[in-house]
Amino acid sequence: MRNIKLLIEYDGTNYIGWQSQPSYQGKNIQGIIEAGIRKMVHHEVRLNAAGRTDAGVHARGQVANFFTESLIPAERFPWALKGILPYDIVVKAACDVPEDFHARYHATEKTYRYVIRRAALPDAFDWKYGYHFPYPLNISEMEQAARFFLGTHDYRSFCAKGSPVKKFVRTVTRAELIHDGDYLYFDVTAKGFLYHMVRIMVGTLVEIGRGRWQAEDIKRILAKKERKYAGPTALAHGLYLQEVKY
Amino acid sequence: MRNIKLLIEYDGTNYIGWQSQPSYQGKNIQGIIEAGIRKMVHHEVRLNAAGRTDAGVHARGQVANFFTESLIPAERFPWALKGILPYDIVVKAACDVPEDFHARYHATEKTYRYVIRRAALPDAFDWKYGYHFPYPLNISEMEQAARFFLGTHDYRSFCAKGSPVKKFVRTVTRAELIHDGDYLYFDVTAKGFLYHMVRIMVGTLVEIGRGRWQAEDIKRILAKKERKYAGPTALAHGLYLQEVKY
Questions:
Q1: In whole angstroms, what is the distance from residue A195 CA to residue B64 CA?
Q2: Does B128 lie in the same domain as B155?
Q3: Where does substrate bind (chains A, B) (predicted)?
Q4: A147 and A231 in one domain?
């Protein structure tokens, strides 16, 4: 049995997220790619993804694996799927991996990027690809705040309510704000994240940038271990799964 | 009577073009902006645009003017329309102009940009914003060919059949290819263009880049004064109205 690893890019705008959702009408990305692969290999496949992104969330570097007995060379998959998949889902690369490889369980590092656009007026092209925040932000206070995310913490305050997980401790190895003209990026790396964790981190950083809280308040919010003490969940369409490492 | 000039940006993907089309179902950009302004000034307005872009064509620097007796300060229009117009149409600036100003008749220079993306695989985010051409192109031959467009020529070979215009002579003051990583831009400036002129220029340059014709063939095609001798009309979604000068 072959195990094939895919590198996947998608514009999440038109999808209900990576996986099917009982409560959402619409297309899920996983199902569309599985159907595309089925057309090539002539049997059902099941994709395991590194990150099950939500509705509207984008990916530049999603990774998923699937099993097949097909003899199609791995490098054919991107080319053949180009003609099968919709334009907003692109398989960028494919390779054979050992049979025990699992895209989610074996990920050692995942990096998300959140995009904030700060120009006064919106951009007709970019509105689905970033969060437009045209008000003043104290960036140096936000940069100090981001540093409090580094290290191992109980992130229960930064986890959406109703999440079924029971362990809330996560280790963040990078939490950095990057300026690029009108754009402000928040890049965050960890082995694993809680549900909505990055978006709640961003919503909290924006509250600090606006002056509602100070950088040090991150420590207080982490210590509370209750969702209601953190900031709002930032909009999905600013979030990108950038890179997964193994 | 006040005359107000607007600078407008739009993503043309979801529209049938700038103006209403009897043969197309769908929304036109002009009608949507006119309806938005009507909500502000409480009377019908009619926009004159510098370029009446086709379905799928984008604008970074469309210019239009309209007449009103409203006392709303010009600089309020971008801000107020931000809350009225859909996200993919943005009025970037507005100012009062003399009563005889007409956005189309008084334009002294219009610049269009055509975007070709040359990477091997498509991009999930960019497919609506450029023409993906992943095959080899002889760029230096295309650059030589572009130079033959400079100056005053009868551009009948580069005008869509069925166009009602009777004068085909146009003066091109810039026709330049620009490399930027995976992207190739064709920037072309003239006082006025014929129907589909830029897209037929691009379709012809691509034929030259592919090796079907040589740079010198531009002279031959211009001399023929018949549409069928030029290359195909390049896809609309690679084209941007970049800038209009007065």
A1: 46
A2: yes
A3: 112
A4: yes
pLDDT digits (tens, 9 = 90+) for A123-150: 999 989 999 999 999 999 999 999 999 9
User: What's the pTM value of the predicted model, to 2 decimals?
Assistant: 0.89
Verify whether residue A54 is a known catalytic residue.
Answer: yes
- Residue in A87, A129, A135, A241 to test binding to B, most B beta-carbons within 10 Å: A87
Q: Give the domain extent around B162.
A: 109-245
On whether residue B51 sits in a domain, the answer given is yes
Contacts of B82 in chain A (CB under 8 A): 121-122
* Pair A212, A149 in one domain: yes
Q: How far apart are CA B116 and CA B228, in angstroms?
A: 23
Q: Is residue A202 packed enough to be buried (19+ CB in 10 Å), middle (13-18) or exposed (0-12)?
A: buried
B16-55 pLDDT per residue, tens: 999 987 777 789 999 999 999 999 999 999 999 999 999 9
Question: Are A71 and A44 spatial neighbours (Cβ–Cβ below 8 Å)?
Answer: no
Helices B139-147 and B197-209 cross at an angle (nearest 10°) of 140
Q: Are residues B124 and B148 in the same domain?
A: yes
All residues of chain A having their beta carbon less than 8 Å from the beta carbon of residue B238 are: none
In a domain, A102, yes or no: no
A103 within some domain: no
Task: Give the pLDDT score at A33.
Answer: 97
Please tell me the total number of residues recorded for chain A in this structure: 246
Residue B35 dihedral angles phi and psi, to the nearest 5°: -65, -35
Question: What CATH number is associated with residue A116?
Answer: 3.30.70.660
Q: Is A112 annotated as a binding residue?
A: yes
Domain stops at, among A70, A97, A124: A97
Which residue of chain B has the CA closest to A79? B121
Rounded Cα distance, A62 and A92, in Å: 10
List CB contacts of B116: < 8 A, sequence separation 6 or more: B130, B131, B132, B133, B183, B184, B185, B186, B202, B206, B238
Structure tokens at A244: 């997964």
- How far away is chain B from the Cα of A114, in angstroms, using its nearest Cα? 16
